[in-house]
Amino acid sequence: MLLGAAFLMATSAVGPGFLTQTTVFTQSLGASFGFVILISIIIDIGVQLNVWRVIAVSEKRAQDIADALLPGLGLFIAVLVVLGGFAFNIGNVGGAGLGLHVLLGIPAETGAVIAAAIAMAVFLVREAGKVMDRFAQGMGLLMILLIVFVAITSAPPVGEAVVKTFIPDQVDMVAIITLVGGTVGGYITFAGGHRLLDAGVKGKSALPEVTKSAVAGISVASLIRVFLFLAALGVISKGLLLDPSNPPASVFQQAAGTLGYKLFGVVMLSAAITSVIGSAYTSVSFIKSFHRSIARNENWVIIGFIAVSTAIFISVGKPVKLLILAGSLNGLILPITLGTILIAAYNRKVVGAYRHPLWLTVFGVLVVLVMAYMGGYTLVQQLPALF
User: Fold this and answer.
1) pTM (2 decimals)?
2) 326 band by pLDDT with thresholds 50, 70 and 90
3) What domain range includes position 90?
4) Which CATH number belongs to the domain containing residue 304 in this structure?
5) Residue 356, SS3?
6) What burial letters (b/e) apply to 244-267, b meaning 16+ CB within 10 Å?
7) What are the tens digits of pLDDT across the range 55-96?
8) What is the Cα–Cα distance from 194 to 54, expressed in whole angstroms?
9) CA–CA separation, 307 and 83 (whole Å)
10) Count of domains forming the chain
11) pLDDT at residue 195 above 70?
12) Which segments cross the bilayer (predicted)?
């Protein structure tokens, strides 16, 4: 169960955007991107430990914690999370379709329908939670093995990567914020925490297990990020050019030829379909406490969430304006939700006699301030594009 929650969080983070981000930043920063990954891992662990511990101790979901502090705040956060999760799920479905297109040569739209049907099938069985955990673990391990193979094949300059991870030529703050938002932003922050709660792993006595699960989740996502970085670095260090229309596919193809391109299809499909499941499950977990009928029919609501996302992708493709707005809102979700969690950590009505570690609080406040600034800046910059 603890491993299932960790993999659900990790595979929710590793979607089509994750693969593209990692490749593009490696192309622009070279070996110095290792430093960005290192800093983002440290921040990610701090964020997840704050969030998961308070959820476990309070025995409440994030929206219920927010409502306990300020009535109506929970609904506001739920709307933000569901909007972001829904919009990006359209992209996840499209990524799954692209993966099947690479593997089988079928149209991306047809692939999206097949992938969505697989994701929905997970929630049709009686023990949907256990099946979801097993599916996330299986896909996560498959992605790790394939990306490690491609990383070895590309023969990256590992020594240089290690040195530049600690002594970078340049530091890109935007890259750090982007990686943090992509790994623990929006709904992803709560995927594992809510899963543990639903599985009955809660209370002060469960904190050691919750901490292990949170660190494991970040470790899995980071392991995938590191090996994908090394794979891309190996290709780039040889002076080979990446296709700007699909950088991650180009890395796999340049490293391992036609086989590599097919392996990219498997990785893209695995990354996208697990993100579809994680996004749908976590988004619905934010609204099921508002009405008993949603909680009673949770699996069917999740299936509907996936079906509508797929229908929009097939009928109109990716709605650019919605994705732009959702991306900007996603940058603001983390400081709002993490800020709420930090306040709740010191509210006896929420956590009782629990004493939150001071270092986690300080760490969390710094993340809130930095992410709020960057999220606000990005939203202001992109608003003109919406009108």
Assistant:
1) 0.84
2) low
3) 2-320
4) 1.10.4160.10
5) coil
6) eebbbbbbbbbbbeeebbbbbbbb
7) 999 999 889 999 999 999 999 988 888 888 887 788 888 888
8) 11
9) 15
10) 1
11) yes
12) 29-47, 68-88, 100-123, 135-153, 173-193, 214-236, 263-287, 299-316, 322-346, 358-380
